[in-house]
Design a protein that fits this description.
The chain has 158 residues and is an all-beta fold. It contains one helix and 14 strands, in the order E-E-E-E-E-E-H-E-E-E-E-E-E-E-E. A six-stranded antiparallel sheet has the order 1-13-12-5-9-8, with no helix packed on it.
Length: 158
């Protein structure tokens, strides 16, 4: 088998085994309709598997300098992450809440839909370009789904 990959911009969602829908809502927002430094957002990922798959990873990037809440480190408010929901028959074996992305690893994902949420605090002002959100079967890389992400503009506090 020969496989070639290239870094091409993603204009529309791509699905070859998984579909992704992403919704961002404000938990705490200083100015409605605008992101400012210090705002807290909840990201809801609704995922759909077209067949049963083992060892699936969900990779969703966050803006540079943002903090994904819920890692258990001191100074992170548990009240802000209290509303996070997970639905469906897929249960994460492990979650990474790193500085560049939220990653969840699933030992087994049955055919159908499931969802996961996480909470992020915007810390740095600027305009941030983000790579695509990606879901992939780790041992069957031809089974994946990608969703392009728009640029995020975070304004300084007034």
């Amino acid at each position: 088998m020969v496989r070639a990959t290239a870094a091409l911009p993603l204009d529309k969602p791509l699905s070859t085994g998984f579909a992704i829908r992403r919704q961002v809502t404000a938990v705490e927002q200083q100015q409605p309709g605008r992101y400012t430094r210090g705002d807290v957002l909840r990201v809801h990922l609704e995922l759909e598997a077209q067949s049963d798959m083992s060892w699936v990873v969900v990779d969703d990037p966050v803006p540079a300098g943002a903090t994904i809440l819920g890692s258990g480190l001191g100074g992170q408010a548990a009240l802000l992450t209290g509303g996070e929901r997970r639905e469906g028959w897929a249960w994460a074996a492990y979650e990474e809440r790193r500085f560049e992305a939220f990653r969840a690893y699933y030992r087994f994902v049955p055919k159908g839909t499931w969802s996961v949420e996480y909470t992020v605090r915007l810390n740095n002002p600027g305009t941030f370009l983000q790579p695509a959100t990606r879901v992939e079967a780790m041992y069957a890389p031809e089974m994946f789904g990608e969703l392009p992400n728009a640029a995020v503009t975070v304004e300084p506090r007034p």
